[in-house]
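In the laboratory, one determines a bound structure by crystallizing the protein with its ligand and collecting diffraction data. In a computational setting the workflow is compressed into a single prediction: the sequence and the ligand go in, and a structural description comes out. We illustrate the idea with guanosine-5'-diphosphate.
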Amino acid sequence: MKNFALIGNPNSGKTTLFNSLTGSTAHVGNWPGVTVDKREGKYKYKKENIEVNIVDLPGIYSLSPYTSEEVISRNYILEENPDCIINIIDATNFERNLYLTTQVIEMNVPVIVALNMIDIVEKNGNSINEKLLEKTLGVPVIGISALKEENLDTLMIKALGASNKTRKGLSVIKDEKISSLIKKIEAEYQNKNVQNSLFHATKLIENDEIEVKNNENLVSIIDEYKKDNYSNSEDTDFEATIADLRYQFITNECNKAVKAEKNGKEKISFSDRVDKILTNKWIGIPIFLVILFLIFHLTFSTNLFFIGSFGLFENVPLLFEGTPYEELFYTSEGINSFGVMLQNLVIGTTDMISSLVNDGLVSVNTPDWCVGLIVDGVLGGIFSIFSFLPQILLLFLFFSIIEDSGYMARIAFILDRIFRKFGLSGRAFLPLIMGFGCSVPAMINTRTLADDKEKIATIRVIPFFSCGAKLPILTAISGAIVTQFGLANADLITYSMYLLGMIVAIISIILMRNTIMRGKIPPFIMELPEYHLPQFKSLVIHLWDKLKHFVKKAFTIILASTIIIWFISHFAWNWSFLEDAELNQSILSSIGQFIQPIFTPLGFGSQLGQFGWVFAVAAITGLIAKENVIATFATLAASLTAGFVADDALGGIDSVIEMINATGINVPGLIAFIAFNMLTIPCFAAVATAKSELPKNKFKSTILFWIITSFVVSSMVYLIGTFYWTVFIYIALIAVVIILIYLYNRRMNKIEKGLN
Ligand code: GDP
Ligand code: MG
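The predicted complex, in structure-token form:
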């Protein structure tokens, strides 16, 4: 079967095209050795009985070896010899996208250019002359719409045609001196029988890292050529010169094929008009904050649009009163947001299941310990996590919409100015905001950061952007605080904790970028993509992936952890089974009590009552997966209060309330507990990712950084919460640190100036 490779810039529509072509045959894995998606699938064309294997290469802007994505794509073409390359181009960003094309066509591989998003080009009243572009580039060109599935079969038939012929690489460099140098080096490669000699020769002259390393002996020819032909050494930065020549080719030659609508005035596109508002210097950021607030509000609020604040719902009888679903749509507080409705639906259902299971087991005389294990341990643990799934998915859906529509790129752009003030470029925005979903893809995304120190600093603070798995901790504890202590709104506490995470992140960045991670902030240049209507299919695929991942985790890691926790909490060291009231003699309890003192300064250590060790245990199980924190509470809560008979499994909030009653923990202690879990070492998966993404010698210090930050901030939260006046001590301390850093920076700047 033939192999076709898809190559193109990020956001050019590769995923959309890949999904349309391969349908259900697609499967995703990782490229060997690296955590970059490898996707493959089969394209079938019924009419002609054709079947082709399609490989989706990572999105890249160039074939230089600066990112692993670029190396993967380049090596794939050079080593795996695909039968045809489909170079997909965002036709609305024609010039930037063609830059990659000018490099691809240097290889001796059949290439076809797919001008994607041709529907938008046409809607804007523009057109691209395919025949002319075909002549200029020397490869077939065809306009398609991956989204509307237009021209896809024609594209594949043309690609098949191209794959049946051999093709020789072409250079777009039109400069006498450089062209003759390319010829010279190309001849050297041909003598050595190297495939794709034109591509390799051009890369070598571009001073390409990999190429130079593999062919040190040829570099002298270039140096000599420079000496003989260039008097001014400034003209011999061939990397820049060749990039420039590529762009010259694009603007002088390729642009002839573009026919822009001219009706007297320049036509302002829809995107430009929207951007006048959304990226406005003054209201851009406020609009973004409002959108962010709306997203959280629609996901978490139990008082939608604050309608209930006027007491409207106080006396309204509940629908489905007396059933598990009585709080589904509204409560006396107000109308539930969509996220809370779904959550109540899940909780009502899981409650019903666990009481059915409980009754069933009891009616067949199952031993008490077995009922406890199944209902409290297993179901309690897993269901307490399931109850947060709707909100996690909803939050994720909103973020996908923002990203797919092209709005996220704008935010990065308008935040760049602010980010620079504390030492990052706007490019770091995407990985940081992705942290709200999950740290793992967020850390992988830092590969787009060119500067190493910026990358390290970013990876370190990504976990502070509270991920989906930490959400149950936030919601369950703030819900319990509201119920138990009658304090404020739960969603207000949740927002504040998110905010705390972000503030700690910003302060950490400022500290790092001004001390150990000093360095230049690379410029942030990007062309904004056109706005798109997010594609329903890709949203569904996103969510489905997330759901699968989550369910898999629930039934593996979390299930295993809850069973182990239940066992070691219900058995003593001599393996005698403990009744509920005797849990303080369990194996888990003695382990918990051993580590408990280290949490005393944070408010959830030795000062707590008899079951206080559960907090220490939960903090530790959270290192495996953050969902474990609340799952641990849920597994143990039903057994905690003395004399409590195993009944239904408790939901997330209820189990925290049970914990509060059993241990006597206070509000500052609870808040410090949330802060600790948000800021400390993230879960296993995130730690493993950090290890592979960070430079080798930066991993241990990163772990240490997480530990120190979580202890410092949480103890600060606890102390300020307990003794309000300590806030002044902290303010004074922070002021001293800022002054010290300022002085240090001044000195360093002087030294650096002195060096130049
Ligand atoms: P990738 O980063 O290259 O994988 O790009 P995606 O496939 O994620 O596409 C980026 C955005 O462009 C998505 O919002 C798509 O819905 C949109 N898109 C892709 N192809 C087309 C097209 O042919 N026409 C239009 N109007 N939008 C498209
Ligand atoms: Mg994609």
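The first helix runs from residue 14 to 22. Keep in mind that any predicted model is a hypothesis to be tested, not a measurement.
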